[in-house]
Input
Amino acid sequence: MAEAHVQTAAPRLPRIAKSAMSFQVWLLRHGLMGSLAAEIMVITVTGRKTGRQYSTPIGYLRDGETIIALSRGSNWFKNAVATGQAQIEIKKQKMNVRVEAVKDQAERERIFELYKRERAKNFARLFGVAVNAPEAELKAALATRDFVKMKPAE
Output
């Protein structure tokens, strides 16, 4: 899977989607998301242009002590990578983290395989292709996603 990484622009969200995401942030912060809290966290980033704080619900995976998230050109991703830091909230626990975009292709492929294993039931929604799709389709799906690693700030 040594294919070049292609970043795509995130579509602009309609007002109703932004409202739904704000409500989801509220539910997560109050511990009201049930079992989904094991897959969705709140990330708070500083805007790279505005300097304002933005909180967004995003999916995540644990990889040992590292938190991994994926994006498709989202603003939270651009802001987190630009500043190299964020605050995350998982199951009502806040943590300041260092953020690093995953650019190494071998590491991107390893994380992709982790998603295939750990998020098989949601894989098609996350990547736009079935977990058992032909290799060429899987490569194409991987090329459209960005990954970040988050580790506790020291």
Observations:
- The mean pLDDT is 89.
